[in-house]
UniProtKB/TrEMBL annotation, chains A, B:
Domain of life: Bacteria
Entry's family note: Belongs to the SLC41A transporter family.
Function: Acts as a magnesium transporter.
CDD domains from the UniProt entry: CBS_pair_Mg_transporter
Localization per record: Cell membrane; Membrane
Record-linked Gene3D superfamilies: CBS-domain, MgtE N-terminal domain-like, SLC41 divalent cation transporters, integral membrane domain
Bilayer disposition of the protein: Multi-pass membrane protein
Alphabetical list of SMART domains matching this protein: CBS, MgtE_N
Transmembrane segments: 284-304, 310-328, 358-378, 384-411, 423-446
Limits of the CBS domain: 136-198, 200-256
Name of this protein: Magnesium transporter MgtE
Native source species: Marinospirillum insulare
């Protein structure tokens, strides 16, 4: 983190317009920290700070900003300044920025770039959002099969300044198809006259550019990769995804899952920076939808109005029973959703998981029925105690099984299973809980 | 993933005890995939598969197993086999395994190892669980300040086979204090006669061994590091944390946060493998606790029993109003908790966030009051419509502010703020919702 002294010095030097001090200050701060500082300034001021950095470092800091801030700054920049930045940015980051710019800015940038870079930007920017292609980089090192180790090291040295990683080297055949991967470690340890074909790893993990970026992140995490090669339909190498991009994707996915579980819509901006308007929009739809779901619970209650008038004591246990079903259901759905997201469970295991949940939920329901039976007796006598205990068991069981099943059903119809955690499961469990409770009450109280 | 054909071939070769085929098969499968296959076998069988691998690859596959499976296999191994494995395992993984073994196994292993490795295991295994020290590795490359680039490359070549990463090289002064870091990329690009002191990066990010491992993962993600150096009180280098360990920590943290948000206790095993007993234990405590929290809601209702008898229609809106407060609260708490976990917001921003939430929640409450007022009028006339609308506004507002505040309070007293998402916030919002509803009803209906 940037220190308080550094912030104070920055503000002081900016106020005094002391170029020499500023140049020294900004180069000493970690790029990620300086980016955070820049993001919290007004665009003109942020832009001014960036200009004190040499071009390489400026592109580096700019890369840490996030697309929203990048676009705000890009609007303030001259055509020349922006296209210089474009040349030095990582290929994946500049493609994202390109997609965020206005059409006029885009055209003016493309005009100023060399043909090769223009095509690179167009190609990377053309992948649909959410695909591996949309997060991949084209700054990597390739070698042709048949090269020897000494030549290979020369190529790596030559490419090093421009590649995002030189630690994984990708080996292509004459058709540009990916045939192997070689780590710099393997290369350094190999004899100079050996052929790289002998040294490279042929059993490699790769991904198609149209697969989801979450799948790319999962592969990188599962196989502990530094960089995952991305291929097209013909097994030709079209890009790489590096471990640091995978970390960002995994973090964004976990955040989105948690938010969805609390019925909050997705967003690209951080919670700290989010506007009142966007927070309202992301939250209101589900809340209102859940209101109407809960009106169904109310309708269930209205249906039993006469019984409630006869046994007002039943109302006393209503929130408790209904909440217990929702809580057990939300536990089951959360376990399922996270298990599916981390790849710990698969959809084919559903049968076994259902039976296990049936057993676990039965024990949970029994425990909670025992916990509540005494209060039932105290408040309403033996019959009410029975109603409450049986209802608790049934509601916890049904709630848990709904929580387990719903994520699977959503996955089957192509929705994000994370939608099923939290309020949605709770609301469904609520409605069913009300019906179970009053049905059991009707049968035991013989109303 | 391991293919169906590979699994079939493995089973066939095992049944026929065909060593040659097995040796070829296991070496072609990715270590992570083979580990998954081994984990799903009985220990004796899993052990047998591992023996078909050369020692290096065996240690690699073993490292992917997870501590629980490792310990089960270790119990089946001979002393010699296990200590051979120990020599070839990554230092961080073997320290974790060591901590999972029985005291007898530990002593027998230590006796068979060289002094240096014995001390390394003892040292790494001594850090408290959850600290950076407990996940760090001691297999890294160091250089003394003052070395030249050509010498440095020699050292790297020499150390490469045993180091976890050779892509980040750590530079120490004569007191063994960390003074700089050099990437292999920088080293390869530098002139052979240059001093590494000129080439290395001096503004480095490091962490103390007693800091939490989550903080280490956050630093690695924030600064896009390959390896984070870990230091002691004297700034001496004692270990490194690599990016792949950071990914595992971040994934485990997100899982734990989500589970805690659904009131599920933590666990080291995956959901797919979890036993009925452990699932019951992790879920029952909070469920029963929440039962007693909800009894308070019931008590609130009991207090207003006479009013309910007079206006049964109020019960119709009870689940709806109470759930809305809980839902809004759970949205606010989830946004806060995730923002705190990703470092997107800080505890010092609380005041600003509170005011923003006050405005957002007011709009949300108004929208929901409008959504419900018609049904209130239809079911109970103008007075009930008023009660329901005012209650909705007040309950959503209060629920949201509780959801925002609770994670901060928990953080202040040293608890995990993730405890505050889901059922805990919902239960508190429930109780307060019941009280608000009937208080407003009492005042408007002049009961």
């Amino acid at each position: 983190m940037i220190s308080v002294e550094q912030v104070a010095s920055l503000h002081k030097a900016m106020a005094e317009d002391d170029t020499l001090v500023l140049e020294q200050l900004v180069i000493d701060i970690q790029p990620a920290d300086l980016a955070e500082f820049v993001r919290n300034q007004l665009p003109e001021l942020g832009l001014k700070i960036l200009t004190y950095l040499p071009l390489e470092a400026r592109a580096d800091v700019f890369g840490y900003l996030g697309v929203a801030s990048q676009c705000a700054l890009a609007e303030e920049m001259t055509e020349k300044g922006l296209s210089q930045l474009f040349v030095h940015m990582n290929s994946d980051e500049r493609a994202d920025l390109f997609n965020g710019l206005s059409e006029i800015k885009r055209q003016s940038i493309l005009r100023r770039l060399a043909k090769e870079e223009r095509e690179d930007i167009r190609r990377l920017a053309s992948y649909e959002e959410g695909t591996t292609g949309s997060v991949m980089s084209s700054d990597y090192v390739t070698l042709m099969a048949g090269t020897d180790v000494a030549q290979a090291l020369e190529v790596v040295r030559h490419t090093a300044p421009n590649a995002e990683t030189i630690y994984q080297i990708f080996i292509l055949n004459e058709k540009k198809q990916l045939v192997g991967v070689l780590s710099l470690r393997q290369l350094i340890l190999a004899k100079p006259e050996a052929l790289i074909d002998k040294e490279m790893t042929k059993e490699l993990v790769s991904i198609h550019a149209n697969e989801t970026r979450e799948e790319a992140a999962r592969l990188i995490s599962r196989y502990d990769l530094l960089a995952l090669p991305v291929v097209d339909d013909n097994q030709c190498l079209v890009g790489i995804v590096t471990y640091d991009d995978a970390m960002d994707v995994a973090e964004a996915e976990a955040t989105e899952d948690m938010h969805r579980g609390a019925s909050i819509g997705p967003s690209n901006e951080g919670f700290g920076q989010a506007s009142i308007r966007s927070l309202y929009t992301r939250r209101v739809n589900w809340l209102v939808l859940l209101v109407f779901a809960n009106i169904l619970s109310g309708a269930g209650i209205a249906f039993y109005e006469e019984m409630i008038e006869a046994y007002v004591v039943l109302v006393f246990f209503l929130p408790l029973l209904v909440a217990s079903g929702g809580n057990a259901g939300s536990q089951a759905s959360t376990l399922m959703i996270r298990g599916l997201a981390t790849g710990d469970i698969a959809i084919k295991n559903w049968g076994r998981l259902f039976i296990r949940e049936l057993i676990v939920a039965s024990f949970l329901g029994l425990t909670m029925a025992v916990a509540i039976i005494g209060i039932g007796f105290w408040r309403g006598g033996i019959e009410i105690a029975q109603v409450v205990a049986y209802s608790m068991l049934a509601i916890v069981l049904v709630g848990s099984l709904i929580g387990l099943t719903l994520p699977f059903l959503l996955l089957k119809v192509g929705w994000d299973p994370a939608t099923a955690s939290g309020p949605l499961v709770t609301s469904i469990a609520d409605i069913i809980g009300v019906l179970i409770y009053f049905a059991i009450a009707t049968s035991i109280l013989a109303f």
